[in-house]
Specification:
about 425 residues, alpha+beta, Immunoglobulin-like, Jelly Rolls, 6-stranded mixed β-sheet, 6-stranded antiparallel β-sheet, about 35% strand
């Protein structure tokens, strides 16, 4: 009986304590950090958009008005490209998402303006304000600005499209410029695991071009000499004074036979002998390039010379470039920018000098020529224009003359003959 009463009392105590527990104030639960931050990011973005109806952009001097938006990306699942790992304590960190315009290697015409747009995401813990900027750090500037302020606030988890206006160089080639972000304190940061890697703009510049002058096809228009005596053109192989010959299928130092013309130049047969050809006046334009391949002729095993490109201006001769060449089974391609002479009318001179004694220095210029950017001018084809003008003139004249004279002559002759015969 006593045991039963104890059980009942114990049950009453347990029920009483349970009721007290239900009515007592509970402990505060540990907050979900990600959910809290996520809510703050979303709220910040909504505040930014609701205040103006669109992200708070302002035009950047020297740039077109951006039509891009600051986009809210509240969770990692909505990010187009997963962000790389960044230390939790990193305030400023970026992640490259996309080249919105002009992907790496895009072809841009010479001297053309283009707008590069990067899509960059804020994966740090600090917001990027309009005090932050995109800045040029190294490489090819392509006439772009040194810095571009961000057009709006970019909170953690958001991304921004950043436009920059560039001008492609006026020379063919590949160009790359490196850029980073800069915070309000002037500290640079970028992308990658440690947020210090630059991102870039990378283009290829090209366009039409044509041969503005061919040295090999005009070699006898040059004045050839051995620095003391004038030489005939073409010369005679083996002439001890030196000689120049045009080869239609020259054999290169490595044994290959080319289908482009070559100039075989042989210096005077003496110690440090020389041969040079001074060509007619030529007006250089910006972007002109001198191209050739220099080497020794095949089997000229003791050949050891210096190739030189000189020019004469206002009565003075200057050296533009030189190349040492010995017979070793290879050759050297030349692609020389002549832009430093743009606007000048000069006389180019091809020079070959023996390095020491002349031991069969058969020096070969393969297809020396000047390349010019752009399309050939209309004057490059004068024969088509003049022939077309002359041809129709005699055709029209002969047709009109024969028709007009034959008809009235027959009529006039018949009328007077029938009158005086009664």
């Amino acid at each position: 009986m006593l045991s039963r009463k104890s059980t009942i009392i114990l049950s009453i105590v347990v029920i009483f304590m349970a009721q007290l527990a239900c009515n007592a104030p509970g402990n505060t639960a540990t907050p979900d950090t990600f959910a809290t931050l996520n809510g703050l990011y979303t709220a910040s973005a909504q505040t930014l958009i609701s205040a103006t109806g669109q992200p708070a952009f302002s035009p950047t001097p020297g740039l077109p008005l951006p039509t891009m938006t600051v986009n809210v990306v509240p969770s990692a699942t909505k990010t187009p490209i997963p962000a790389g790992p960044v230390p939790a304590s990193k305030c400023d960190a970026a992640h490259f998402l996309d080249d919105v315009t002009y992907a790496d290697g895009s072809l841009v015409p010479r001297n053309n303006t283009f707008v590069k747009i990067w899509r960059i995401k804020n994966i740090g813990t600090c917001s990027w304000t309009t005090s932050y900027a995109l800045v040029f750090t190294s490489g090819d500037s392509m006439s772009g600005p040194s810095a571009v302020a961000l057009a709006g606030t970019v909170n953690p988890g958001q991304y921004i499209d950043i436009p920059v206006t560039f001008t492609a160089p006026n020379k063919d080639g590949s160009y790359r410029g490196y850029w980073k972000l800069r915070n309000a304190a002037g500290v640079l940061f970028g992308i990658g695991d440690t947020a210090d890697t630059a991102f870039w703009v990378d283009i290829k510049v090209g366009g039409p071009s044509f041969v503005a002058y061919e040295f090999a096809n005009n070699f006898c228009n040059a004045e050839w000499s051995n620095n003391s005596d004038a030489l005939s053109c073409p010369g005679a192989d083996g002439d001890s004074k030196g000689f120049v010959l045009k080869l239609n299928s020259p054999k290169m130092e490595n044994g290959t036979t080319e289908d482009e013309p070559g100039l075989l130049t042989f210096p005077q047969n003496k110690n440090d002998g020389q041969i040079s050809g001074k060509f007619p006046p030529f007006t250089v334009q910006y972007g002109d390039r001198f191209r050739t391949i220099v080497n020794c002729q095949y089997d000229a095993k003791k050949c050891n010379v210096t190739f030189r490109l000189d020019y004469k201006l206002n009565g003075n001769t200057y050296n533009l470039a030189s190349w040492q060449e010995a017979y070793e089974g290879s050759y050297y391609p030349v692609d020389l920018d002549l832009s430093s002479l743009a606007g000048q009318t000069v006389k180019f001179t091809l020079v070959v000098s023996a390095n020491g004694a002349n031991n069969g220095d058969y020096a070969l210029w393969l297809n020396p020529h000047i390349v010019r950017q752009g399309n050939p001018p209309p004057t490059q084809t004068p024969t088509t224009t003049s022939t077309g003008t002359i041809t129709p003139t005699p055709t029209i004249t002969s047709t009109v003359t024969s028709t007009a004279t034959s008809t009235p002559t027959a009529t006039q002759t018949a009328t007077p003959t029938s009158t005086p015969t009664p």
